[in-house]
Amino acid sequence: MRRDLTDAFLRALTPPASGRLEIRDARVIGLVLRLTAEGRATWSIRTRTRDGKQTRPTIGTWPAMGIAEARRTAQARLVEVQRGGDPVAEAQAARSARKAKAAEQSVADRIQEWIRARERDRVKPLAHTTVAQYRSMLTNEVVPKLGKLPLRDTTREQWAGIVAAKRRGAPATAALLYRTISSFLSYAEAHGWIPIHLLPRKGAATLAPAVSSRSRVLTDSELQAIWRAADRQGPKPRAFVHLLILTTARRTEVADIATGEVDLASGHWTIPKERAKNGQAITLPLSDLALVALRAVWPEHGERAGTGWRLLGRIRGSGFQGWSKLKQRIDAASGVTGWRWHDLRRTARTGMARIGVPREHAELAINHISGRTKLERTYDRHDYGPEILAAVGRWQAHLAGLVAPQPSAEVVPLASRKPPRKA
């Protein structure tokens, strides 16, 4: 049937009980509105090409495309058909071209596209350190082997082989590599870049089984030795080690500490959510020992350096690098071996428990949210800022007792002197 379509008429339409309802416009011959039982309304034109083939391209949906726009679009498309065009064939050709182009996209191109998407993801944002880890791992482990190949041409054997090769030399890294590759391939499958996921869904246990978590906790005497070894380094490496021990922060968070994050007057360091691994900003106290380390590397003209000026890099204004070589120097100077930078966080967490910091406060002090249940995170909206400052402050006070210079035996501090007894 043909109707002079109006907004009031379209709003009054009810979906058919089954199948679909088609209404032809009386003003533009060939314009059709199709309404399905699910309530979806689409505009299309029905006509024939020059060679007599019937064609019915869709031009939009209602109400997103109103009546006036649908009529204008339909008239323009009908003119194209009269001139020899075939909208349906052209759309099919465009889809085929897109598929062909997608098939030619290399692994390296798709990895970069995936990383950009994760950086811009507002629903589930990632910390820049996590994105950097993804980029580094895939660039170093995958791109040299598969980077130039079209992603669609790669095989499960190739992807599994990369993980298996890494497992032979670095089992813990292999487990992380498997998770990173699997995340990338899941995204690729969801977006149609590949027809199926190219790693076995349950293959981690076979290809890259999880390695037992580390349990190394440094003793107080080992912390003293590492601290003293750092004292013999330059100002920036020394600050890097001292801040790692004092603040409970992660290696990358300390490495990129910037002027705008530090308040020397109040003695606070705020790690922004963009730099925190879990995307949660945290403010940590800076004890006298921490402030001494920071003032030694503070730019001479702090007001000109800007808030993004990073303090610990060899190049002015850049972040600290070369922690592997620094670790070797610290090991040699301290005599303490068999530990990693991350073990300092475990040591701090264990140490806080030992000196009586409540468990939930100690977990928050190292910026762990996994210690709280989902229900707690939903209903307990307290930020625990004071508790975090107190917890880390107690740890720093404990460390000060270990590493602060001790007064000479011949000198009695005034505060400890007792008044003479009266005769």
Write the layout of secondary structure elements.
Layout: E1 2-3, H1 7-12, E2 20-25, E3 31-36, E4 41-45, E5 47-48, E6 54-55, E7 58-62, H2 67-82, H3 87-104, H4 107-120, H5 128-141, H6 143-146, H7 156-169, H8 171-190, H9 204-207, H10 220-231, H11 235-247, H12 251-255, E8 262-263, E9 268-271, E10 282-285, H13 288-295, H14 302-305, H15 323-334, H16 343-354, H17 359-365, H18 374-379, H19 385-403
Parallel strand pairs: 1-2
Antiparallel strand pairs: 2-3, 3-4, 4-7, 5-6, 8-9, 9-10
Shape: elongated
Helix share bin: 40-55%
Unreliable stretches covering 5 or more consecutive residues: 408-423
Give the N-to-C terminal Cα separation. 122 Å
Largest sheet: 5 strands, mixed
What is the count of helical runs? Answer: 19
Rg from Cα: 32 Å
Q: Trace the largest sheet across and list its strands.
A: 1-2-3-4-7
**Helix and strand composition category:** alpha+beta
Averaged pLDDT, please?
Answer: 86
Could you state the order of secondary-structure elements as H and E? EHEEEEEEHHHHHHHHHHHEEEHHHHHHH
Share of residues in strands: 5-15%
Number of strands: 10
